[in-house]
Design goal:
The protein is an alpha+beta fold. It has four helices and ten strands. Strands 1, 2, 4, 5, 6, 7, 8 and 9 form an eight-stranded antiparallel beta sheet that branches. Strand 8 (98-110) and strand 9 form a beta hairpin. The longest helix has 14 residues, at 8-21. The radius of gyration is 15 Å and the shape is globular.
Length: 143
Amino acid sequence: MTHRMRWLPLVLIVGFAATVTGCGGGGSEESGNSPVSIYEVAGTDLSRVELTPDAAKRLDIQTAAVAENGSGKVVPYSAVLYSPDGDTWVYVSPKPLAFVREKVVIDAIEGERAFLSTGPAAGTKVATVGVAELFGAESGLGE
């Protein structure tokens, strides 16, 4: 990935975060009718992002299960998020409409598949569409 392309996801996040949180909404758990709620994950610096059904539909949120091959785990490459500092993450879905960022280590990328040496267990659902918007909501971009 070229240096210039590395920042494309961040640019998209800023643009789409306003769609998730709304121009005037804070996207926090205190917001009464916000399309997104953010909750701290105890003992971590991560947050759980919960969407309303309408928000998930509007963003076309889609998930896929982590697969297992003989040498490791496989996710669709569209599930991978590159943070501004270069770390790689996926958003796991512990329950419907809820997403938590989980760090992964990528061994290889082949076409539309990312092969992981560390990451969520096989069978775990990960977001494959709407990943940048989830990050925007979690990080407060677009507020």
